[in-house]
Task: structure prediction
Amino acid sequence: MKSEKFKENEPFQRNLLQHLYDGFIQTDDGQLLPVHRILMSLVSPFFHTAFVTEGLKHGSNICKVTGVKSEIMQLIIDFAMDEKIIITDENIQDLIFSSDYLEIKKLVEKCCYYVKFNSSVKNCISLYQSSLSLEHLELSKHCYRFIEIHFEKLVNQNSFLSVTFDILEHILQSDSLNVSSEGIIWEAINSWIKVEAEIRIKKIHQLLNQLRLNQQEVLNILEKLETGIVRDYLLSSKKLLTNNKPKRPISPRKSYIIVRCKANKCTCSITYDEKIDFVRNLFNIPLRPTSVATDSKGNIFVTQGVRCWSYCLEQNRLEALPDLEIFREDYGMVVVDGFLYIIGGVIRRPSYMTLRTVERFNPITRQWSWIQSLHFPSKGPATTLKGEIYVLSQRLHPQEKDGIIYIERYNPSFNSWTLMPHIPILEISFSLLTHNDRIVVLGRRSNELFLLTFDPKRKVWYTWRKTLRYVFLNPKAFIMRCSFVIYEASNEAENPKTFSWDSVQKKWMETTDPFLQNLRHYSIFCIENQRILRSLCDRSLYEWKKLSLA
Result:
């Protein structure tokens, strides 16, 4: 980290360096660009060889570089001085090729970072081609994934119409092409062929082999085709071979609803599938909610104070619900069979009080009502399992400093709470969730975090995961891609940490995933209802744009 004094003198020092050059880089156009040989050698093995190994041997201070434009080379020279560079859509391809060729690892990383956050339907094809040429696996995966997700948008782009046959065939093989119908893929094939019909028509059978339509559907397409080389060629063929794989779009096994709450804004989006990389926006609300909950159908409930809203994922409808009966904080909120439950919590005025009371919202009568209260006061999370509600409650005890923590189970059919065995080793509990038909509790004892599981059938507690050193102000846990994640939920933590469970190494690992590194502003919910996922998958691109409440 640069000192303040260095920062103050940086312009002067940079100006001074320009008068101390001791070498040159010669580009194809004959330009001699002055450089500091030691700086270039430090950032690049290529220049280390040119200036140190070969340069000293032959007594030369000039390095000839072919295939790199002089203006790009100057950007690279400037980058070697202070590791600063302005990357744009216009120079990204030249920069990434040149930095890879010149073995400048840090610049390659910056280029990859730019690609990841600046991919668009206009540049993704060309960037994908570049990544294949560079044999950069991670970059290729990202660009290919972007193409899969945005395929329907990019088929009319010039970059798509000029793509090579091999790349097009590879794209069309994907099960994950995000299209509203298989017919979109046929239109893409037809558009690509017509650009250079005389040459490309010979490839049509190989491309049709990636089309997942039966013979009759292909014949129906032929009847609608305008007269031309494509129609004539297909009609002259004896047999049109297509693919018998399931038609696209193929609904994902699961998706995630992501609710982001920061400042006075709540943004809700849904992922395309189980990967947390590309999302569709659902709605924005100009407020910061105190609690968020979803049901198995992806319907979302948001509360702030006594105010409450519901969002229907299928109908894309956001509406206000009647206000809660009382103002409370730190409560549990869950949804069972369409009924919304507000459980426990605290009242801070006129005096602090932990609550046992429970409110339930009936979506048919659209009214709140009081139901059976908990055995003991509760504040914090709640969860559901097989149509029943589980919540943590706490009973004060003279021999226990922090009281005794219990699990209570609610049966909606009987409107009754049942007290489960208390949690034996925890001082404080932070999160409550379900996994593999068990209740999972994240809590602390002494200076360590524990994940414990409760078997509702046997009514037995188990310590399920190795402990994690307590480095949090307010830790929370959730499950992502079948793995446990523990993150910092406090806004006051300066350097929030996130850990995920490595099932191979059997230990907690600090995550490097940019999304997971700062989860404190997010609430994440998994949807596995196949009927809902199918209906979302069948929405056209136009419908998504039309329905968005952003």
The chain has 18 helices and 30 strands. The two ends are 41 Å apart (CA to CA). The mean pLDDT is 89. The CA atoms of residues 347 and 353 lie 5 Å apart.
